[in-house]
Amino acid sequence: MTLRILLVDDHVVVRRGLRQILAEEYPKAHFGEASNGQEALELVFAKSWDIILLDVSLPGPSGLDILKDIRRHLPKTPVLVLSYHPESVYGIRSLRSGATGYVTKQSAHEVLVDAVKRVLAGRKYVSPALAEMLAGDVETDHGSRPHESLSSREFEILRRLGAGKRLTEIAEELSLSPKTVGTYRARILEKMRLKTNAQLMRYAIDQGLVD
Question: What is the pTM (predicted TM-score) of this model?
Fold first, then answer.
């Protein structure tokens, strides 16, 4: 039976690299590719996939937003989240959103292949670093941290505000209007019980949420 693999990433070179790595392991695999959330959902609902490799940072709806859509309609389809960001930023959040595993793009290709094999075998892939974080998360009740209450979109905007970006910059990056981003910012401040952008920036830096 032909393995069907969907690659979702907005960078052509990344998709090409993933395809090359996985084709060496699965030479008869059939690949689909999407560069944004809309393309991804169209392919997800048009065809059947054995595994989806999903970039967390996409133009428009984030990878986690897309993941939630996939989970609502295809709860059994395994989704392996990929990211340039370390486990501390998106690892636990991805698993809570329904990811079957989380792999950083800095990982060796053997790690990616191992993760895919585990997921295809019906198991979750959790790196040693993420496993340690999960254990610490339970022990210290990190779910009580203010940013854990944010939605995926709010979290994306928090990270960008933390990096000192203007509303217009964030709006362009996320394909939103500046007014909508301003509404999100107000909601973030309210949820986190903060008053200014400076406080948001300090929080994001202290929590390691900024690259």
Answer: 0.78
